[in-house]
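ASSEMBLY PREDICTION REQUEST
Request ID: AP-0331
Submitted by: J.K., bench scientist
Number of chains: two
Total residues: 586
Priority: normal
Notes: Please return the full assembly, not individual chains.
Input sequences:
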Amino acid sequence: MSLTHLSIKDAAAALAARKISAVELTQAHNNAIAALNPRLNAYITTTPEPALAQAQAADARIAQGNAGPLTGIPLAIKDLFCTAGVRTTAASKMLDPFIPPYESTVTAQLLAAGAVFLGKANLDEFAMGSSNMSSAYGPVENPWKRAGSDAKLVPGGSSGGSAAALAARLCLGATGTDTGGSIRQPAAFTGTTGIKPTYGRCSRYGVVAFASSLDQAGPMARSVEDCAILLGAMAGFDAKDSTSAQRPVPDFQASLARGVRGLRIGIPAEYSVAGMSDEISRLWQKGIGWLREQGAEIIDVSLPHTHYGLPAYYIVASAEASSNLARYDGVRFGARVGGEDLIDMYERTRAAGFGAEVKRRIMIGTYVLSAGYYDAYYLRAQKVRNLILRDFTQVFDKVDALLTPSAPTAAFGFGEQMNDPITMYLNDVFTVPASLAGVPAMSVPAGLNAQGLPLGLQIIAKHFDEEMVFTVAAALERAAAFSHLPTVRAA
Amino acid sequence: MSLEPATVRRIAKLARIRVEDDEIAPLQTQLNAMLDYVAQLGGVDITGVEPLSGGAQMAMRLREDTMCDGAIAEQILANAPDRAGEFFAVPKVIE
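STATUS: Completed
Returned structure:
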């Protein structure tokens, strides 16, 4: 099999057995990126030379017999993670130029585990979006095509570059971040796999902040097992993140083979939303059937406040974004546009640096936090958020996990759904509730639609029970046996 | 509730984002669409419900009030658009 098509697990085994070298593996990916990235734009920055140096170090480490779980494994890093000495953009002009003097905790842990970084993956500006169309460095093309059409489709967002790079075989694994669905929706759009862990599981230190009470880093890969391997290296307590969970990191891989026999799987009625395509409904039914056949008990459940997830999310996330992004004022880092005085400099710098969607969210966030409107909008949204958390807490007394679709549609075309911001927001209708509650959730590819595009199913479990998510996801993966390949991919 | 052009200007001022005259009308439309959308929260019964402010199901962690990092002025200033010695430089604030 081609080196770029390997799973992380198989690549690690081949490296350990000295059948391949880390340099060969990295060079194969560097070549694939050189050939396809000019078209797909999955990476904002590529780092072929440092990657080869890391690969040489990996080969030396393997030769010494002290390889880590990811030694020599080439990864794409979402360009929201600060990487020491390597330009970090958050896909915004605002941070041009910004070269972090420090490494994020998650990427530092991946490096310690021996990983090779191929480059920084494209995303929606400041991770705000569901299409990757808002990147200041241009959109990402989804490697998948509708049958008989060459129209460019979006890879989803915000981790669209990570997802496209995985699907096109431009990396073996990737980091993503998920605030309202930014790992799960692009995974669903590209036939890849991604998990948003429990809030607090992975450190936020060194991840450019969007909405701090929702932001969570997680792995994206081409199998459930590869996600489990990556999460094992990314997760863990970090004193530098005030909301980092002081909990041991379980052996996630051990949960994959447990099987779903006897597990209670909840099917929430509220996720059957009006306007959901028949294809998505049928896929959901298929997923229910697969789990039932493997011995799970299927239980109809209700999460009554689901419908209010999106509006609550857009208030909470925008409010936190307006506060977090106040730091971009042209004083300490990033771009500066001169003005008549200090205030004028701030205003001109921010007008030039932020894109349209980021400005809209900052302004909505500013409004809902402003005097006279705080109670009506922000405080109310926080209370609704508590009701959504309560929905999940109550339902997990009755079931072990929930099964839902990952997104209401398959990947859409460049320029579609761009008419108004609300249409774009509806992409996240199935992913936002788990984000608000902070519970872990994963998307696995489960089939193709009539046009040949991948569709995903989402598994949600209670706080810190990623093992349950992996157990159910692995069962779905075995049943779905998804082996389709995108049109645009490395050899 | 609908935002007036003057309110859009006030929000932009609070957010420290310069907005040109021809941007006001489209912003007004888009921000109003967002506010119309989130208005549905008004229909939720939130009587007696506490606000949930954080994502973590834990109490805030405290640490010893001691210095644990520092003396890295060059690193902190490395990305500054303008500096004067060991300081960030900005346009004159006081005449």
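REVIEWER COMMENTS: Residues 54 and 94 of chain B are 39 Å apart (CA to CA).
SIGN-OFF: pending second reviewer
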